[in-house]
């Protein structure tokens, strides 16, 4: 079985997508349509060299979405998924690639998601921290016993978990995690507390947008972050997509479930190779590759 994986925020790089734009007339049309939908020239930022401009959430999220979705299209006949999954933002790319959501609706939702998340960050400042070398249950227990809001946010692979919440609570938790034996407990340079209760204002706003878009059953199961299992029911997909903003990304569990369900090869569709690295840390024997232009 072949799984196709779609990356999330952090995979961006200056110049991303230019090869796709140059390779295909259809890809060029998609990028030009994206500029119209977004109301600004995202291709100028993506194809340029200004890494700081590309780091802005309202640019980063649609940029990664566009790179991933357009790449899945220009892969042509080699894009044959038995199942798909996306890491956080990547779940929207996966849904469009699996024909559950239209390109236009997917891009609009990603843009609204980015703006809503930025607004929530401005309203309630928060941060995230990477914790390495400690078992998940120990991290969960320390988060629960730390005063303030701090939760497990990204289960990336065994020994790598990201926590999210209020800055003071994150700092306290990091101290406790180091005392408990964590190899590293390091605050990340991010704009807010993603996948935590601090994203509740963004979740309410995004819920209305998601409910307003038509979503149909995908061509293959979508392993969603919230439930870490393959979903094909459109109503269930919507519910999980809304829950995702305040719930943890269960990436380790999603890959483990894909493996248990018979997946043998994972292809990363989008910028970078982060997800391939995580898959290898979850299961060394799995085959991985990058999606390429046909």
Overview in brief:
The chain has 294 residues and is α/β, with parallel strands linked by helices.
Protein architecture, described:
- The protein has 294 residues and is α/β, with parallel strands linked by helices.
- The chain has 2 domains: 2-122 and 197-290, Malonyl-Coenzyme A Acyl Carrier Protein, domain 2; 127-187, 2-Layer Sandwich (Alpha-Beta Plaits).
- The protein contains 13 helices and 10 strands.
- Helix 5 (57-74) packs parallel to helix 6 and helix 10 (200-211) runs antiparallel to helix 11.
- It is globular, with a radius of gyration of 18 Å.
Secondary-structure blueprint:
Layout: E1 2-6, H1 18-23, H2 25-38, H3 42-47, H4 51-55, H5 57-74, E2 83-86, H6 90-97, H7 103-123, E3 127-132, H8 136-145, E4 150-157, E5 160-165, H9 167-179, E6 184-187, H10 200-211, E7 222-223, E8 230-231, H11 234-243, H12 251-260, E9 265-268, H13 274-282, E10 287-290
Parallel strand pairs: 1-2, 1-9, 9-10
Antiparallel strand pairs: 3-5, 3-6, 4-5, 7-8
Helix pairs in contact: 2-5, 2-7, 5-6, 5-7, 6-7, 7-10, 10-11
């Amino acid at each position: 079985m072949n799984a196709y994986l779609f990356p999330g925020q952090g995979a961006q790089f200056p110049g991303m997508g230019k090869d796709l734009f140059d390779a295909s007339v259809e890809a060029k049309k998609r990028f030009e349509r994206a500029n119209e939908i977004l109301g600004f020239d995202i291709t100028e930022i993506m194809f340029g060299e200004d890494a700081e401009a590309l780091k802005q959430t309202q640019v980063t999220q649609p940029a990664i979405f566009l790179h991933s979705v357009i790449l899945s299209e220009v892969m042509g006949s080699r894009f044959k998924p038995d199942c798909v999954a996306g890491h956080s933002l990547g779940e929207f790319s996966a849904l469009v690639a699996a024909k559950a959501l239209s390109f236009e609706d997917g891009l609009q939702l990603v843009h609204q998601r980015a703006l809503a998340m930025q607004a929530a960050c401005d309203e309630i400042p928060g941060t995230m921290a990477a914790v390495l070398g400690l078992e998940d249950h120990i991290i969960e227990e320390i988060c629960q016993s730390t005063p303030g809001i701090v939760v497990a946010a990204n289960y990336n692979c065994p020994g790598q978990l990201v926590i999210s919440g209020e800055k003071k609570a994150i700092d306290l938790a990091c101290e406790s995690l180091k005392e408990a034996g964590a190899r590293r407990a390091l605050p990340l340079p991010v704009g807010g507390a993603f996948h935590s209760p601090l994203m509740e204002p963004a979740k309410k706003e995004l819920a209305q947008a998601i409910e307003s878009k038509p979503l149909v059953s995908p061509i293959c199961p979508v392993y969603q972050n919230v439930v870490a299992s393959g979903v094909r029911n459109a109503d269930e997909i919507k519910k999980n997509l809304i829950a995702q903003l305040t719930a943890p990304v269960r990436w380790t569990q999603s890959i483990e479930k894909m493996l248990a369900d018979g997946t043998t090869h994972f292809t990363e569709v989008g910028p970078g190779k982060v997800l391939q690295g995580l898959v290898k840390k979850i299961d060394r024997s799995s085959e991985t590759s990058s999606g390429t232009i046909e």
